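Folds abound. Consider this:
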Amino acid sequence: MIYPILYPWLLWLLVPIAILYYYRPRDLKDTTHLMILALLVLSLSRPVWDQEPKETEIEAKDIIIAVDISYSMRADDIVPDRYSFAVETINSFLRSNVSDNITLIAFTTNPLLLSPPTTDHQLISIALKSLDRENIMTRGTSLERLFRMVATLPMRDKNLILITDGGEEENLDKLGEIIEDGSISLTILPLGTESGSTITTASGKKLRDKDGDLVVSRVNPMLERLADRYGGDYLIASSTPTETANSIEDVMDSGEMEQSTITKTQKSYVELYQIPLFFAILLFFLIHTRGVKYLIIFIGMWGGSASASIFDSYYLHQAYQSYHSGDYNSTHRYIKKIESRSLESQIALASSYYKDGYYHKALKVYRAIRSKSPKIKQLLYYDIANTYTKLEQYDKASRYYVKVLQLGYDSDAMHNLHTVALKKSRNLSKISVSKPSSEGGGSSAKDDSDEDESKDSDENKNSGSGGGTQDSAKSKERDGKLLQESRGSKQPQSSKVYELINKGYIYEKEPW
């Protein structure tokens, strides 16, 4: 069965070609040129052949996102308003955590599961986008009911990211009891200011209470006390949703959060763009017998792995240039544009995070790379050890320097091992780490702080094929990036959703 063309919108380029063919006087040469253009357009649209879905086991963290959708989230003391800022923050977090198993809950007086645990984050974005706040009549916020719902979820690790401006409850002990009994790890992102803001209704008027006074919504100071008392993280919103999402990601990466193994069904396909491209080049060659140099240019532009985007090599080249010039932000940006991640691109990404001081992110990428090559694994273990050293986690750094030496003697690893041991014994504040002996120092396995030797052996068992350094790794080596199945456009939530959210709204006693 032929799978839908990946870029069907490019087929519109056939229209002007057809118009030229119909109206312009033509000979055999002109007709052949138009045929070549049509074949190139078809090749650019990337036709593919569908393959049977395959089940793959992946390592993912279980994360629950609960977003407050009560009326007070319309306040605009955070631009453009609290709820819009929350939505953009969630979408940014989803884009940077492509493999995590995420659950989405919307809550007011009553909580509602909008999306069950899934690694298909596009589904979560669609569910969030299709939620119409005009259909939500409840105005209060009940953290107690939210926590009780989270406590009943089936996952073992309940890592809750709470995005809200506050709740009605003042009894911290009662909320804390639910948190502890439900084994909930809490990260709170409060949206709002201490001075507060008035709320503009859909009609453009300021919201007033039953006595005619203006309603001013402020962030509830109880949230910070709740985080402090029960070991949660209390974040402050940054100036942009992207920066705020990065702060949340840093908290998730810095914790001792365990990963679970889940099974994901992936759709795969074989690209067929080479077929129309081959005939286009053949026709071009037949007409221009002296155009061999152009043929070589075409082959160079379009060659490579069938499953990779035609721009991947360009983006990787630009990422390398940015890395060597010290522009690590540009390195991150170019690598994220690469559609099929290779060992080379992952090494460059991890190294740029390390150079830029984002050690938790670097560690996460390092530990996601798979290779059977002893040389590559030695480089990966060395970089993991250096990263743990920067994080001042010297026990883990020592363990990985030892792994480097088990794969072969390395003078830098031996020096750093002695230095780490000295740091542990003398409790110094800083440590000197030798630079890797190879520029292509890479990345490593999954980010699990309690990994032991048995997990390393499992990792080797399930790893992909080995590769080389940044300058020699083959494009066929990839990091196993999951193919996300494209989804449709925004779909409205059913009326049942709003019935569940609005349940009991008539009996709200303290909606503000």
Remarks:
- The chain has three domains: 2-50+269-302, 57-262+487-507, 312-462.
- Residues 302-309, 428-489 have pLDDT under 50 and may be disordered.
- Residues 312-462 form a domain with the Serine Threonine Protein Phosphatase 5, Tetratricopeptide repeat fold (CATH 1.25.40.10).
- The first helix runs from residue 14 to 23.
